Amino acid sequence: MALIYRKTEDGRIELLFIQRARREGDPWSGDMAFPGGRMQAEDATPRATAERETLEETGIDLIHHGRFQARLSDLITRRHNRWRPMVVTPYVYEWRGPKAVSMNHEVERVVWIPLDYLAAPENQGSLPWRTPLRTLNMPCCRYQGYCIWGLSYSMLQELLALDLIRLKF
After folding, report:
1. What is the structure's pLDDT at 109?
2. What is the DSSP secondary structure assignment for residue 98, as one 8-state letter?
3. Does the chain have fewer CB atoms within 10 Å around its N or its C terminus?
């Protein structure tokens, strides 16, 4: 996964999120996420996977216009159609390229959200998530009708706790 931030002309810091395309059978259909995906045979490292997937999904070329900043903690999850565990490795990049994006079929929308908004306690909430056993109240951040929760929320919280971005500016 790639957590990509940029500095705006007025000096604010924004973090890029994608809204996943809506697809039948995808339990995370329409959810907010960071660009990323499964490692392929041609990917030398998980970081190479994050860079390739970001380019495929958004047209954002991290190799040529991104500045690698950090690797966050690995997260363990499972594929939505299997119980076998899967490791997700998040990488942080500063974006220094063009503003234009070119989304592929996996992405419905790209949204840049101000980091200050994401960090503000008043913008934190919970999302009821139904499981076969009960409903859980998952922590989340809501922004203009979008809801960031789950793994994306966990990665965001680690990024905010480390304060990596603010230290760069």
Report:
1. 94
2. -
3. C
Distance from the Cα of residue 134 to its chain's centroid: 27
Are the CB atoms for 93 and 13 separated by under 8 Å?
no
Quote the tokens at residue 104: 């592929």
Please report which residue ranges of 39-102 form alpha helices under DSSP H.
Answer: 46-58, 62-65
Beta-ladder partners of 19: 32, 109
In which residue are the tokens 């045979």 written? 41
Q: What pTM was estimated for this model as a whole?
A: 0.90
Place of tokens 């500063």: 94
Question: At residue 155, what is the residue type?
Answer: M
Give residue 86's pLDDT: 76
Alpha helices by DSSP H, the chain? 46-58, 62-65, 115-119, 150-162, 164-168
The pLDDT, as a whole number, for residue 76 is 85
